[in-house]
Amino acid sequence: MVLRADYKTDLWVDWCPGCGDFGILAAIQKALSELKPKPWQVAIVSGIGCSGKTPHFIYTNGIHTLHGRSIPFATGIKLSNPDLMVIIDGGDGDLLGIGAGHFVALGRRNLDITVIIHDNQVYGLTKGQASPTLQAGMKTKALPEPNIQDAINPIALALTSGYTFVARAFAMDIDHLEEVIKRAIKHKGATVIDVLQPCVTYNDIYTTQWYRKRIYHLEEEKGWNPIVEYPEERYEKLGNALSKAWEWGERIPVGVFYEDRTKDTITDRIAQRIPSYYNKPPSRQAIERYGKPLLDDAKFREIFASYLVKVEK
Ligand code: SF4
């Protein structure tokens, strides 16, 4: 039997008590315990921000990389080893501010990666500045003046960038978030989940209570069907999803906005050009020069051993 505990590390989780990050971490661990990948079959990549520490707390491969650069790192990992389950876990500032160009590029490629956005509208780690998802005119507690810039809508941006699975969830509804994460991971293509989460320290507007009064589930809406089964349904379903993307205020939708099951991924397109790609991707090729290995196996083990947090559980 596989348990959530099997995907926990023994590191101290040092987020502020009450932070939505805890809900996201729990939902990822629960989703993994249901899907049951071996820890070495998963790579979780983060950038910089409070959420950046998430891979430290999950017992899988984890890469805590540079600000805004989790998507290029994850892209390299997935292209070199398409068998890996690759998850990007990052903040709204990281993925939609400095990393926005990479965010768009991942959608265009439809690479089979799951992006989980911690959307709390502030840069928590650096003391509460407005992030790209805070709406203009809002004044969260660390801002001396109301926010002067317009916000990015992560759902609309993902839909128009080409992501083939686009969803939103709430960090404090762990069971629903877990279901959305599992569905996103199983989807073949670029997936994004915009997770609304409270930052109890710096966002005094969008609190748990504020969200609980407004959130409703798309799957409970009569006639809601976001799944594209045939390419000719794309534009109609994209239009439906976009109209829901702009709904904010008294009612805020969560759930799956769009799921296109018909579009090929960039690795499929690569395999059409390079037929041996899936059987012999870069991760299964010898690193050599002029037919001679650059490093032997023992040397590799010696190098990587120094980076391992824990070799055995
Ligand atoms: Fe969470 Fe905000 Fe604290 Fe960061 S600053 S750990 S986002 S509550």
Topology at a glance:
Elements: H1 21-35, E1 42-46, E2 61-64, H2 70-80, E3 85-91, H3 92-98, H4 100-109, E4 114-119, E5 122-123, E6 129-130, H5 154-161, E7 165-170, H6 174-186, E8 191-196, H7 208-214, E9 215-217, E10 227-228, H8 234-245, E11 252-260, H9 266-273, E12 288-289, E13 292-293, H10 297-305
Parallel strand pairs: 1-2, 1-3, 3-4, 4-8, 7-8, 9-11, 10-11
Antiparallel strand pairs: 5-6, 7-11, 12-13
Helix pairs in contact: 1-6, 3-4, 4-5, 5-8
The protein binds iron/sulfur cluster.
Iron/sulfur cluster (SF4) is lined by residues 15-16, 19, 21, 50, 120, 124-125, 199-202.
Written description of the protein model:
- By secondary structure, the chain is α/β, with parallel strands linked by helices.
- The chain has helices at 21-35, 70-80, 92-98, 100-109, 154-161, 174-186, 208-214, 234-245, 266-273, 297-305, and strands at residues 42-46, 61-64, 85-91, 114-119, 122-123, 129-130, 165-170, 191-196, 215-217, 227-228, 252-260, 288-289, 292-293.
- Strands 1, 2, 3, 4, 7, 8, 9, 10 and 11 form a 9-stranded mixed β-sheet that branches.
- Helix 3 (92-98) crosses helix 4 (100-109) and helix 5 packs antiparallel against helix 8 (234-245).
- It starts with 20 loop residues before the first helix and ends in an 8-residue tail after the last helix.
- The structure holds iron/sulfur cluster (SF4).
- Iron/sulfur cluster (SF4) is lined by residues 15-16, 19, 21, 50, 120, 124-125, 199-202.
